[in-house]
# Entry
Amino acid sequence: MKCPNCGCLEDKVIDSRLSEDGVNIRRRRECVSCGKRFTTYETIETLPIYIVKKTGVREPFDINKIKTGILKACEKRPVPITEIDKLVAEIEKKVTNSLQQEVSSHEIGNMVMAGLKKIDDVAYVRFSVVYKEFKDLESWFSEMESYLNERK
Ligand SMILES: [Zn+2]
# Structure
């Protein structure tokens, strides 16, 4: 870190402390050249991730919406909630670890389908039939709702 006093690029960290709320680390640094002390803060970079729908409309990635969709597909199926949570966590990890700021609803749909295929045939078919037809998670969610209500 460039010394604010002499511009030297070398310093040593003399103290590191986690902030009370745990969201950043405060480091006291000392310039090796002039001895000036200064403070830096380190935080986790959190860039919002967006889902891009077929129409090109962007909306914030919301894992809860995806979970709701999966729960609907698995309604009245002998699928343990732990399996669903596992799939949801997997999808979330894939999306956040991709380091992309945008992910298409199509990609998300494919991830859900691939996951459901391993968990439950009926849930997979329910999801894919409706999803493939609509190719858009938003309309899928509402369509799934009426689809399941009709069957009751
Ligand atoms: Zn300095």
About this structure: The chain is about 45% helix and 20% strand.
